[in-house]
C-alpha cells in the first residue's frame, strides 16, 4: 500500500511541477524558484493485504504537501513531500483502520543526487489486532551517475 501511495503522490507532484515550470521560466533571470502544492482527497482502490496477500478494497483519505526549490540556470533542485492520512479495509470479518505517513525527498546538484523515502502505517483491527509497518528506502548517485548507496528496508509487525 505504501509504495503505491508514494508513486501516486510522486506522479501528481511531477504533473504539478510541469504545470508551474513555464511560469518560472517566464519570470526570467537566474534566481531561486520555490513552489508549494497542497492536495487533499479520498482514494478507493484494490490493494494486497499485508498479512494474507489477498486483494482487499482500501479507502484512503489523504492530505499532502509537496515543495520544490530550484535554481534557474543551474543544475540544482530540492524536492520534498509529506503525505498523511487514514486508511481502512475489511478482511475476514475484521475491520482495520488507522493512520499512515509517507515522506520523500529528492536532491540534485552537479556533484551528486539522492532520494529518500519513508513509510509508516498503524492499523487497529475491530478484533483487537494491530498491524504496523515501517519502510525506509534510499539511493545516492555520484557526479558520474553511479549508485554509491542503495537500500530498502521494510518491517511489518502484527500479522
- The ordered string of helix (H) and strand (E) elements is HEEEEEEE
Overall tally of domains: 1
Strands side by side in the biggest sheet: 1-2-3-4-5-6-7
Biggest sheet statistics: 7 strands, antiparallel
* Helical proportion, percent range: 10-25%
Taking all Cα atoms into account, the compactness measure Rg is 18 Å
Q: Report the mean per-residue pLDDT as an integer.
A: 84
The total count of strands amounts to 7
Q: What would you call the structural class?
A: alpha+beta
Low-confidence stretches: 2-15
Beta percentage is over 45%
Shape: elongated
Instruction: Give the N-terminus to C-terminus distance in angstroms.
Output: 15 Å
The total of helices stands at 1
Descriptive account of the structure:
There is one protein chain. This protein is of the alpha+beta class and 159 residues long. It has one domain. It is built from 1 helix and 7 strands. It has a 7-stranded antiparallel beta sheet with strand order 1-2-3-4-5-6-7, covered by helices on one side. The two termini are 15 Å apart. The N terminus is likely disordered.
Please render the helix and strand layout as text:
Elements: H1 2-27, E1 32-48, E2 55-71, E3 77-91, E4 94-108, E5 112-125, E6 130-142, E7 147-157
Antiparallel strand pairs: 1-2, 2-3, 3-4, 4-5, 5-6, 6-7
Amino acid at each position: 500500500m505504501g509504495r503505491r501511495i508514494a508513486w501516486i503522490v510522486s506522479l501528481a507532484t511531477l504533473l504539478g511541477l510541469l504545470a508551474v515550470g513555464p511560469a518560472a521560466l517566464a519570470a526570467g533571470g537566474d534566481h531561486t524558484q520555490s513552489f508549494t502544492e497542497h492536495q487533499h482527497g479520498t482514494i478507493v482502490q484494490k490493494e494486497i493485504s499485508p498479512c494474507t496477500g489477498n486483494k482487499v478494497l482500501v479507502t484512503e483519505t489523504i492530505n499532502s504537501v509537496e515543495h520544490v526549490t530550484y535554481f534557474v540556470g543551474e543544475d540544482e533542485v530540492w524536492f520534498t513531500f509529506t503525505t498523511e492520512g487514514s486508511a481502512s479495509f475489511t478482511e475476514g470479518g475484521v475491520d482495520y483502520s488507522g493512520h499512515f505517513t509517507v515522506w520523500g525527498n529528492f536532491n540534485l546538484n552537479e556533484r551528486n543526487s539522492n532520494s529518500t523515502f519513508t513509510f509508516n502505517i498503524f492499523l487497529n483491527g475491530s478484533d483487537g489486532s494491530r498491524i504496523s509497518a515501517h519502510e525506509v528506502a534510499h539511493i545516492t548517485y555520484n557526479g558520474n551517475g553511479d549508485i554509491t548507496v542503495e537500500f530498502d528496508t521494510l518491517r511489518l509487525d502484527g500479522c
